[in-house]
Amino acid sequence: FDRLFTMLDSLAQPDGAQTYPPYNIERTGEDSYRISMAVAGFSDEEISIEAHRNVLTVKGERKDEGTGEGSELLYRGIASRAFERRFQLADHVEVVGASLKNGLLFVDLKRNIPEELKPRKIAITASSAKAKQIEAKTAA
Q1: Full residue range of the structural domain in which residue 89 is found
Q2: What is the pLDDT of residue 132?
Q3: Is residue 96 part of a domain?
Q4: Which regions of 1-140 does DSSP assign to beta strands (E)?
Q5: For residue 46, what is the enclosing H or E element?
């Protein structure tokens, strides 16, 4: 876990104990990252993603589908609760895309550091001129 290169350095949750939905964070390139969240049962219309001031917020709220006509729900074992996850992003990280596939939400992030903040290499030039020698004047 390289703190210098991570853009997801902490959760911005007040309790910090929220575990739903589970998620993974992976590096996909030198300055590219992806958050994968398990959101089975949610459609893209039921999920919202917002980035504001270095905080990424992902919310999900299921529409009550109810049971089919003429049926009665006897046991609910499939989670259908609403969720909200917040991630603290490092400076210069932006959301570049999101997709939902097979119950997984993918949020792609890119770190764009401005040129003036990037480290730059300073060339050292070798001096070929001989150093001047200063002659001391003799005291009279």
Answers
A1: 22-63+79-116
A2: 63
A3: yes
A4: 8-11, 23-27, 32-38, 47-52, 55-60, 83-89, 93-101, 104-111
A5: none
The tokens of 51 are what?
């980035």
The answer to whether residue 123 is domain-embedded is no
Whether residue 81 is predicted with pLDDT greater than 60 in this model: the reply is yes
Whether 128 is covered by a domain: the verdict is no
In this structure, what CATH number is given to the domain that contains residue 100? 2.60.40.790
Rounded to whole angstroms, how far apart are CA atoms 80 and 127? 72
Q: Is the pLDDT of residue 27 over 90?
A: yes
Residue 19 vs residues 11, 22, 24, 92: alpha-carbon distances, Å: 11, 6, 12, 27
Per-residue pLDDT averaged across 81-104, rounded? 92
Q: Is 116 helix (H, G, I), strand (E, B) or coil?
A: helix
Q: How many domains does the chain have?
A: 1
Q: Tell whether pTM > 0.85.
A: no
Residue 7 has pLDDT above 60, yes or no: no
